[in-house]
Amino acid sequence: MEPVTILLAEDEGLLLTEFEQALTDAGFGVVAVTSGIKAIKHLNAAEPCMHGVVTDIRFREPPDGWDVARVAREIDPETAVVYISGDSAPDWASKGVPNSIMLEKPFAMAQLVTAISQLLNDRSPPS
Amino acid sequence: MEPVTILLAEDEGLLLTEFEQALTDAGFGVVAVTSGIKAIKHLNAAEPCMHGVVTDIRFREPPDGWDVARVAREIDPETAVVYISGDSAPDWASKGVPNSIMLEKPFAMAQLVTAISQLLNDRSPPS
Amino acid sequence: MEPVTILLAEDEGLLLTEFEQALTDAGFGVVAVTSGIKAIKHLNAAEPCMHGVVTDIRFREPPDGWDVARVAREIDPETAVVYISGDSAPDWASKGVPNSIMLEKPFAMAQLVTAISQLLNDRSPPS
Amino acid sequence: MEPVTILLAEDEGLLLTEFEQALTDAGFGVVAVTSGIKAIKHLNAAEPCMHGVVTDIRFREPPDGWDVARVAREIDPETAVVYISGDSAPDWASKGVPNSIMLEKPFAMAQLVTAISQLLNDRSPPS
Amino acid sequence: MEPVTILLAEDEGLLLTEFEQALTDAGFGVVAVTSGIKAIKHLNAAEPCMHGVVTDIRFREPPDGWDVARVAREIDPETAVVYISGDSAPDWASKGVPNSIMLEKPFAMAQLVTAISQLLNDRSPPS
Amino acid sequence: MEPVTILLAEDEGLLLTEFEQALTDAGFGVVAVTSGIKAIKHLNAAEPCMHGVVTDIRFREPPDGWDVARVAREIDPETAVVYISGDSAPDWASKGVPNSIMLEKPFAMAQLVTAISQLLNDRSPPS
Hints:
Six copies of one chain form a homohexamer.
Chain A: E1 5-9, H1 13-25, E2 29-33, H2 36-45, E3 52-56, H3 65-75, E4 80-85, H4 92-95, E5 100-104, H5 109-122
Organism (chains A, B, C, D, E, F): Sinorhizobium glycinis
Keywords (chains A, B, C, D, E, F): Phosphoprotein
Domain Response regulatory (chains A, B, C, D, E, F): 5-120
């Protein structure tokens, strides 16, 4: 099988590496970027579109992770979305997209893998 | 018991009346408004804050229903949100808030009452 | 709004009347039939297709309710399905369709209305 | 069909009447009692056992509503349980039983009916 | 502890090996077969019965994966069922069993492990 | 990131080691104890409080695992709770806490990791 591709956007290098490793070990193909701008550029260029997005909320400059997820869902309403944040979790109720998961730091790598897997598994088959 | 109060925003008069009647019969207190502007004005003024919001998406002028829900959730992250729409349902995946329900027209009044009841019942008790 | 239409198949006259009344009071449009044959005939002829199916399992002759639900889902994979049964509930795990609800007799009319409403509300918006 | 029977335990007379009316209108058979002692007496005597329990938390004397629910589940692990409370909701996480719903006052009658219906509908069919 | 046993039916050798490895690494005992016939033979002979089934839909000859799952559920209504398919996913709504998961290719191995784990964890304890 | 910490209480040494290894490999920090007494001592002393509890039901002396979970939820109502048991599973419906998972032996290590991850991911973000 070709890989299921996840776009991973995180601007802290150590975390980016740790998350990428966990997702790769779990069998996902990962496109790792370090800003919201690059994330949106990749989403717009990806062919076929990404199956899921794992995104930090705050980057050094806009767009933020809330924007990244909205763009991903405009391109494909079925995209699995996992937000990662240390202090933006309370905004999830007003700024998040439906059927997404907010992982607050700290979390274990198994939580990240379970979150994205569960969201992908819950997508309704095409009709 | 004092009533549970729902803000209902719908600009078509006949529908507004039908929805208000259904919610009132179900035991809810209803504040009915006919535009997004009035909805947001009420949300900001309500004391205590509204328990839920039932909102159409498109009004004659901005803000739209997506904005209404975001404001409601900024004020109270636990607000129950039900969107009503004829043709904006596909945007729910990118513009809706988490743990909300999109009711596409047509729907039966029981679906509206069940939707808002279920969302209110699912809110986690305060800790 | 035009009504949301539910196909109701039940061969006991008293129950058929009671269920039809409960669904109508809840705001649904109901097409009531007394056999699996008539149910499938209606499903094939309905234009637009039915939004939901409430079906007894056993009729005096085949097809049974399991067949009715399968045909409904072949026509529209999003159809809400509620099975009603006195003694066929254990077969639900092997003969039912996914995302359906089995109501075992006895049940209250509110359970029927909640079941069909919840299934309709959970259908993912079109993308 | 014979009725689905719900045990309702609430010591404020006006609320007891209001809840009993809502459940009866929804098609349930209701056994209404005004204390935890009477609730447990009824649970132990009921033949066949009650399908669901709607109970206040605090009564004038012990046992409390947490006890009532535990006894109901010891008799029938599938019993639907809805707790009603003004100020005991925070204890639900440590004192409630699994797969139960806590309704905090105030709530609309539709929330009570939806809660008990949803719990009854979610019970797995017997195997 | 003795292992939890999963029946895995897949007729492409490379995929069979990959799935078997992923499930074994996750701690499951796996019985791997290459056809629907062999799958059903194993289900009928297994003592005690299999805890879960992971099955491809199409095999070189009947029975297909829909049949395999139905037989598994007739033997044990609590069996966890995961379907795997490239192009049969749209039929899940009419041919699948309730409380099952359809994994469409491509998927990551973590999705397979999460799917079967989640289904096993959701089974209600015996009463 | 600092680790997410799970309290693991199990009195059989081989199982304790196996569970600890699985949770550690999944990225969790684990505090392993061999009795209910020690578990409750750790819960009361932990600063900050434990994110989750994985507990056997029966220990050589009281308190049992039901008590451990109740204490954990009194300290933090959001604590993720997974019970492990060979023969106490039927009591979960009356003695368990809400939003907990009962894992009956035998189970695969992936089920344990998925259970605790899913419960942690489902906790509502703070508001």
